[in-house]
Specification:
Elements (H helix, E strand, L loop, with lengths): L2 E10 L5 E10 L1 E9 L3 E10 L4 E8 L3 E5 L8 E4 L5 E4 L12 E8 L5 E9 L5
Antiparallel strand pairs: 1-2, 3-10, 4-9, 5-8, 5-10, 6-7, 6-9
């Protein structure tokens, strides 16, 4: 079964000048999470697993500032910092390097603020790669 994730980007400037675009990626597996991270949490652990070489796209967004660490909260392989309401997005072929350097088996999320965060995660990958 083929699964497609499409990310749409738009920009609007002064005088109504606008540019829009979309990038669609297809693969055979996805993991979608809506995580509740209590305020004042350090290294809250959540299941998320994929091989970084098989990643086709990832989209992350949080309602609060959070830090996401992969595989180990104390010595992570990779760290992504999210600002509240600001999406983080990457797709294979978008011109930027893969944000992950190692396979992901678990994530740890730190929410230093006092308000609980909702962290939305969308991952698309090819599970048939060896």
């Amino acid at each position: 079964m083929t699964i497609t994730h499409t990310t749409r980007l738009s920009w609007t400037g002064e005088g109504g000048l606008a540019v829009t675009g979309a990038l669609a990626k297809a693969a055979n597996a996805e993991q979608n999470r809506v995580l509740a991270v209590p305020g004042e949490s350090t290294d809250a652990e959540f299941d998320l697993d994929f091989a970084f070489a098989d990643l086709k796209s990832i989209y992350l967004q949080s309602t609060q500032d959070v830090t996401i660490e992969t595989n180990d909260g104390a010595a992570p392989d990779d760290t992504i910092t999210l600002k509240a309401g600001v999406p983080f997005w990457w797709a294979d072929g978008n011109g930027a390097g893969n944000p992950f350097t190692a396979d992901v088996s678990t994530i740890f999320i730190t929410n230093a603020g006092t308000t609980a965060a909702q962290v939305d995660i969308r991952v698309l990958y090819d599970s048939t790669q060896a």
